[in-house]
Amino acid sequence: MSRVNNHKPQSAGPDKPAIVGGTPVFAEPLEFNRPTLPAYESLSGDIRSILESGQLTNGPYVSRLERQAEFYFGRPAVALANCTSGLILAAKLLGLTGQVIVPSFTFFATSHALIWNGLEPLFVDIDRDTWNIDPIAVAEAVNPGVSAVMAVDIFGNPSNKDALREIADRHGLKLLTDAAHSLGALYRGRAVGGFGDAEIFSLSPTKLVTGCEGGLVAVDDEAFAEELRIARDYGNPGDYNCRTVGLNARMTEINALIAAAGMDMLDDNVEARNRLAHAYRQNLSGLPGLTWQKVAPEDKCTYKDISVLIDPGEFGIERDALRDALAAENIPTRAYYDPPAHEQAAYKGKFSISGELAVTKEVSANILSLPVWSHMTEAEVDKVCAAITRIAKAGLT
Ligand SMILES: *Cc1c(COP(=O)(O)O)cnc(C)c1O
């Protein structure tokens, strides 16, 4: 691994950031993330047989993906068109009412799913170290109008499932997890998917396993899985007499085929991202004011995103200024999740928050997600880190 502060000059003024006239570290724009996909040749025979069979949705490839996911999670799994529909249907079929405790530091689909069910999100704060829903804040927010807790495994870092289960059981609440980021994560050594009343995964293009689009719901028992399979098909069990007001949330056979190939690569890709996260941390360890997401030693994070919290006083540059300076180096970044859900234009002032959400505000204002994908190289990480380092050094002097 190159030590960025010793790097050899490649052109005049190599320490000059691009934003003040230096040569960009990347000549061509780097991508923020990229799907890791199987080779076409490995799927072409199956694509042909899907097209020739005429069975385009909810067929043998969807069933095969569900069996593969069940084996992985150790409990029943249902495939859907996307995670959002899985969140909506899981919340509906679990019979939630009134308020649902949810973090605001998340992608807005988490709370959208509650609102589509006529439920009220009750936003709570996150933990300062893990950036996940804070069990203490959850316990404080519980009131008689609350029917469930919806956790999020942010960036693939498992939420504190034992503490949340304990609180939920104590108050008779359901526990769901938006596990959109955490397919492939381990909680206390066990695969995420095996916890709570439902864990809902996304197979959208930015996630570790993608079906182009898609979702998976892991649930407690086969009866609930069967209800979800009916609900994803408008609520029609086959006799055209709907048992529930469902959605069209079916997964296509081709999506399932692509997702199944991604499941085969999942564990390797989680390992690869853990190496990249380690490389980012090591490479930037000499810079002050950077804090990385804390993952419990007995857990495994998928690093759907590798994000860093910037203390502007210590680091010398504010998050947005670093973002702009990196953009000039042809390095795209994201401020996930700023604004947090409760401050989205569609939400502002309309929903309850519990407490001040002080940590949510601080993390949202100072976080930056750096480029990562499963087949990204450590050399690419080194170059991103070299850019961050020269920007920081220029900013500090
Ligand atoms: C991607 C994502 C979703 C939505 O997933 P879709 O499959 O696109 O519906 C929901 N929650 C979180 C946290 C996500 O990152």
How would you sum up this structure, described in words?
This protein has about 400 residues and is α/β, with parallel strands linked by helices. Helix content is about 35%, strand content about 15%. It is built from twelve helices and 13 strands. It has helices spanning about 40-55, 60-75, 85-95, 110-115, 135-140, 160-170, 220-230, 255-285, 310-315, 320-330, 360-365, 380-395; strands spanning about 75-80, 100-105, 120-125, 145-150, 175-180, 185, 190, 200, 215-220, 290, 305-310, 350-355, 365-370. The strands form three sheets. The protein has an eight-stranded mixed beta sheet with strand order 1-9-8-5-4-2-3-12, with helices on both faces. Helix 2 runs parallel beside helix 8 (about 255-285), helix 3 crosses helix 4 and helix 8 crosses helix 12 (about 380-395). It is globular and about 70 Å long. About 50% of the residues are buried. Pyridoxal-5'-phosphate binds near residues 109 and 180. Pyridoxal-5'-phosphate (PLP) binds next to helix 3 and helix 4.
